Amino acid sequence: MASSDELVNVTRVDKPDSEWAKSLDKMEFQVLRKKGTEPARTGVYDKFYPKEGHFVCAGCGTPLYSAQAKFDSGCGWPAFDKCYEGTVKTEIDNAFGMRRVEILCAACDGHLGHVFENEGLTPTMERHCVNSVSVKYVPENLAAKESKVVDGGIASGALGALSPFVFLFGVYILSDVLGRSINAFTAAGVAQ
Ligand SMILES: [Zn+2]
């Protein structure tokens, strides 16, 4: 598929849950509108790797991911390493005592899943872990600009600024631990 600098048109869709309940099936409603999660390894797109086409939001039909962005992460849910620029937005999710970055359709706020960074699985270092029921496959190719979501999203401020400190703190802890064991080793040597 030829790459393109064109952006996908994102048109806001605002509907009350009562309206969504009419157009979505139970599982789609639970995941897209109530931020549920389909059981791992059960989604129709988990092991589906088309060479052509793209995936749209199951709620509003906005194109979100190209077929080429999908990869096998082995995690049990569809994984994408980039999205059509501007079609996915992020929010910090502190549910279940974890700090995760939620991904949502930028047009209808439908819950897609979560995005994980720096796992080294693909060159973009981004894994969009998406529920199968949140998206629908369309066989036609769509040439539009693709990008990572965290670089341009809300999360870049929170996570991007934090990561150098986390790294330095890790180095500090490691050197502290190393220092202590070297001291202990030296002390033990001296004692004998
Ligand atoms: Zn949507």
Return the structural class.
alpha+beta
Strand order of the largest sheet: 3-4-9-8-7-6
**Which oligomeric state applies?**
single chain
The largest sheet is:
6 strands, antiparallel
Distance between the termini: 70 Å
The set of bound ligands, ions and cofactors reads: zinc ion
Residue-averaged pLDDT, rounded?
87
Low-confidence stretches: 152-161
Helix content: 25-40%
DSSP helical segment count: 3
Key phrases:
single chain, about 190 residues, alpha+beta, six-stranded antiparallel β-sheet, 3 helices, binds zinc ion
Overall description:
The chain starts with 16 loop residues before the first helix and ends with a helix. The longest helix is centred in the C-terminal third of the chain and has 37 residues, at 155-191. It has helices at residues 17-23, 26-33, 155-191, and strands at residues 54-57, 63-66, 70-71, 79-80, 83-84, 88-93, 100-105, 111-117, 126-130, 135-138, 146-147. The strands form three sheets. A six-stranded antiparallel beta sheet has the order 3-4-9-8-7-6. A three-stranded antiparallel beta sheet has the order 2-1-10, with no helix packed on it. Strands 5-11 form a two-stranded antiparallel sheet. It has 192 residues and is α+β, with helices and mostly antiparallel strands. The chain contains three helices and eleven strands. It is globular, with a radius of gyration of 21 Å. Zinc ion (ZN) binds next to loops. Residues 57, 59-60, 62, 105, 107-108, 110 line the site of zinc ion.
Layout of strands and helices, then pairs:
Layout: H1 17-23, H2 26-33, E1 54-57, E2 63-66, E3 70-71, E4 79-80, E5 83-84, E6 88-93, E7 100-105, E8 111-117, E9 126-130, E10 135-138, E11 146-147, H3 155-191
Antiparallel strand pairs: 1-2, 1-10, 3-4, 4-9, 5-11, 6-7, 7-8, 8-9
Residues 57, 59-60, 62, 105, 107-108, 110 line the site of zinc ion.
